[in-house]
Structure to design on (645 residues):
């Protein structure tokens, strides 16, 4: 589904990705761990196509198509979706209007909002005065409406209380549906510090991003245990 | 009285205005004749009608409490449909109401500048609208000032009185005929909001590319009165300059100004509002949303708090959509007493790329994302504005969106 070869990226003159290689086969969900500032968000933003993230070298292909130079909205239309770590506030633009933009399958925004305790926020300006948890919920609901084939989540659980964590967990689970009886069609690339997310999705693979490079490719639960126990030190040493 | 006024006007006839490009008034022809009978709406061409409707005027007079319509110097149509309401050509009102002498030229000094002077020396009518005491005229009254003759000056003097406890909703559309290229519009407008009265004034401008516009307005609000002004100018105009002054003279008086302005290339808008809070417990709010696609905008605002317990807020937001455009926000706060609560907020710049790209990630093209943000930026829900007038404002914005992007 997604293939990244030798990706080098600059942002504001700073090198943030230094030769990333990554493959996510169709139906797999991968988890990305890594220290603050290691380049995780930059990787997702680059896959989405944000202009600030300048690709110096390398290639991104999605469903067999080279998308390295495609504008953002065309990537979105091909089926790439991103829940932002820190989405911008947009004055004057109602959350409902943005939901409607995402809503390609014409489901009822009101019902969806109702189900996720989000109704009161639909008429508010997007993210203006939203709490941290409300923003995360807004991001996930937008993705549910967009229903992308490649689901990218940038720290969906940070700042979310325990009760809402369950609600959001269910939403994420829905996004990345995995059935026992048929192969999953959606792929996922998820950034997490806390590992809570592992309880809600069946992650197939995990890696650690360190200083713009991918280290330690392996089983996500084992990886996370290792990080919990030894921090990222071990990953630096480990050359997997 | 009127002799003194004329002398003062004579003396000010070459006096330049403090703000805005100086206009050579001699360049424009002054139309005049003795006829006073209305021209009637039937004489309007198809194009005229289309233009007039665009500026918010309903030519069928439906759902209107009254209508005033003037083309150049001639009255076209003047009608009133509701008791307790007066709508008259200014010249006629001055004849019928001797007491008007006490209000005429009181909110705007006749010798302010060459434009006020010209309006006095070459008076070409205008409208008089008045709601009698306690009359709540919630259905809008419409006034249209239309310019048709190329290269002429239109000098009108309007006066509006909302008597004690009354309510008035006025929508005025100012526009030029499609064939007109150049001209100057001078409009004196005096507003008197008496005790406990409410006056909503919505003005939609639709001028032509070479037209100069110099409105001169003054507003006086008494105890517990409310003055609400909405101003929309989204079409090309060569130069528009206005800086109305509002005096809140009675306790509890409130004034709110909202404006939505667009400056295409070659257009110069120098607009703002000044409110003097002269009594206790008065409140004022000035909010502007400006967009340039190449023109120059000066967005001014001046709040003067003379009493301790007054509250006032000034907000200028500007969007620059092209490299050439300029927006200059000039907010001024002047508090003469401690305890006056006065604030301002100004932000001018391009649309944040981050916001555009965010919407693109949701599937919108760059143009669509920009349009969505611009629409949101202009979408100020005006508190207290009747839904019908809000719909007019919304439609004017929608219309201009296409040309903006
Ligand atoms: N627009 C920018 N201008 C300058 N530096 C940037 C910009 N965006 C990212 N960076 C820098 O690039 C590096 C990687 O940032 P990135 O957001 O990808 O980290 P991250 O791994 O997502 O961190 P976190 O876990 O804190 O979210 C950081 O040092 C950051 O300061
Ligand atoms: Mg990050």
């Amino acid at each position: 589904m997604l293939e990244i070869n030798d990706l080098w990226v600059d942002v504001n003159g700073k090198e943030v990705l230094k030769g990333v290689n990554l493959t996510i086969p169709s139906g797999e969900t991968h988890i990305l761990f890594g220290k603050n500032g290691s380049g995780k968000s930059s990787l997702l933003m680059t896959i989405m196509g944000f202009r600030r993230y300048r690709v110096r070298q390398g290639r991104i292909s999605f469903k067999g198509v080279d998308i390295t130079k495609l504008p953002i909205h065309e990537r979105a239309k091909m089926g790439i979706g991103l829940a932002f770590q820190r989405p911008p506030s947009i004055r004057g633009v109602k959350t409902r209007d943005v939901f409607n933009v995402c809503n390609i399958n014409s489901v009822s925004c009101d019902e969806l909002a109702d189900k996720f305790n989000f109704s009161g926020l639909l008429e508010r300006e997007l993210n203006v005065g939203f709490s941290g948890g409300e923003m995360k919920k807004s991001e996930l609901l937008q993705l549910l409406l967009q229903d992308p084939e490649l689901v990218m989540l940038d720290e969906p659980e940070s700042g979310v209380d325990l009760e809402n964590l369950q609600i959001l967990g269910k939403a994420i689970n829905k996004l990345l549906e995995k059935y026992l009886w048929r192969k999953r069609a959606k792929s996922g690339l998820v950034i997490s510090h806390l590992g809570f997310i592992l309880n809600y999705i069946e992650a197939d693979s995990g890696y650690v991003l360190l200083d713009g490079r991918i280290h330690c490719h392996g089983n996500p639960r084992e990886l996370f245990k290792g990080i919990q126990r030894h921090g990222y030190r071990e990953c630096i040493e480990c050359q997997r | 009285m009127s002799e003194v006024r004329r002398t003062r006007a004579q003396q000010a006839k070459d006096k330049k205005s403090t703000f805005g490009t100086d206009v050579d008034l001699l360049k424009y022809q002054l139309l005049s004749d003795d006829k006073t009978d209305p021209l009637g709406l039937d004489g309007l061409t198809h194009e005229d009608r289309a233009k007039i409707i665009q500026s918010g005027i309903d030519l069928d007079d439906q759902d209107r409490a009254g209508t005033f319509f003037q083309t150049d110097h001639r009255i076209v149509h003047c009608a009133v449909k509701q008791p307790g309401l007066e709508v008259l050509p200014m010249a006629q009102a001055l004849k019928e109401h001797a007491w008007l002498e006490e209000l005429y030229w009181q909110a705007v000094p006749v010798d302010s500048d060459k434009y006020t002077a010209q309006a006095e020396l070459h008076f070409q009518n205008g409208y008089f609208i008045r709601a009698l005491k306690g009359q709540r005229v919630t259905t809008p009254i419409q006034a249209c000032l239309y310019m048709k003759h190329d290269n002429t000056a239109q000098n009108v003097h309007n006066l509006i009185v909302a008597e004690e406890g009354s309510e008035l909703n006025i929508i005025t559309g100012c526009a030029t005929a499609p064939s007109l290229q150049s001209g100057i519009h001078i409009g004196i407008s005096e507003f008197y909001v008496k005790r406990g009265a409410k006056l909503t004034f919505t003005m939609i401008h639709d001028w032509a590319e070479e037209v100069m516009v110099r409105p001169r307005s003054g507003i006086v609000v008494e105890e517990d009165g409310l003055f609400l002004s909405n101003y929309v100018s989204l079409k090309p105009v060569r130069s528009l300059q206005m800086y109305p002054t509002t005096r809140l003279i009675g306790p509890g008086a409130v004034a709110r100004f909202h404006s939505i302005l667009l400056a295409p290339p070659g257009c110069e808008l120098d607009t703002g509002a000044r409110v003097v809070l002269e009594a206790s417990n008065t409140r004022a709010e000035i909010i502007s949303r400006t967009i340039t696609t190449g023109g120059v905008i000066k967005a001014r605002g001046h709040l003067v708090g003379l009493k301790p317990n007054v509250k006032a807020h000034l907000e200028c937001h500007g969007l620059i959509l092209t490299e050439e455009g300029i927006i200059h926000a000039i907010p001024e706060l002047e508090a003469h007493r401690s305890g006056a609560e006065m604030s301002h907020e100004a932000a001018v710049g391009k649309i944040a790329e981050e916001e555009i790209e965010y919407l693109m990630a949701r599937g919108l093209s760059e143009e669509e994302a920009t349009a969505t943000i611009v629409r949101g930026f202009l979408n100020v829900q005006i508190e207290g504005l009747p839904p019908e007038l809000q719909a007019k404002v919304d439609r004017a914005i929608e219309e201009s969106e296409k040309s903006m992007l």
Observations:
- The longest strand of chain B covers residues 136-147.
- The longest helix of chain B spans residues 387-404.
- Chain B touches chain A at residues 352-355, 357-366, 369, 372-373, 375-380 (CB under 8 Å).
